[in-house]
Design brief:
Layout lengths: L1 H21 L5 H12 L3 H10 L8 H15 L5 E13 L2 E10 L4 E8 L6 E8 L2 H12 L3
Antiparallel strand pairs: 1-2, 2-3, 3-4
Helix pairs in contact: 2-3, 3-4
């Protein structure tokens, strides 16, 4: 029993140590790569990580809890997670980017959207959202991309 508790404590310490290294990111790709590395094993921890990149979000724990609850409720109905693919990246300005990913589940895909902001020298997650209605997203994109 002590061995199990010791292993569990060491695992938690390693996870916390690796999370603290993940928080200081100098590129948007580092943030999203770290997010999905954690998401593959611990989706709620990935949501916490994303919002922890922004110190201002720590003052709104109810937002983080709400997103985690909504995402868990949805993904519980989708079957097994099987990976992600980049969809689109929109550079609004040198300090603001929107990055979208296709998140694959057995039943159907989701879209994760990160709004990333760099106020000084480090990027942070300004907003994170998910969408299960990809047909509307694709329809809207197709309409705007049609030739004249």
């Amino acid at each position: 029993m002590r061995k199990v508790i010791t292993i569990l404590c060491i695992s938690i310490l390693l996870l916390l140590a690796s999370e603290s290294k993940l928080l200081a990111q100098s590129s948007t790709k580092e943030i999203t790569d770290a997010f999905f590395a954690v998401y593959a094993k611990f989706p709620p921890k990935a949501i916490e990580y994303a919002f922890a990149t922004n110190k201002w979000m720590l003052k709104k724990p109810e937002v983080v809890t709400n997103v985690k609850t909504q995402l868990k409720t949805l993904t519980d109905m989708l079957g097994e997670y099987s990976g992600f693919e980049p969809m689109e990246e929109n550079t609004v300005s040198p300090s603001l980017k929107e990055v979208k990913f296709l998140v694959k589940y057995e039943r159907e895909p989701l879209q994760f959207t990160f709004l990333l902001y760099k106020p000084k020298d480090k990027w942070m997650v300004e907003n994170f959202s998910f969408n299960e209605n990809l047909d509307k997203e694709i329809e809207g994109g197709t309409k705007t991309r049609q030739p004249k």
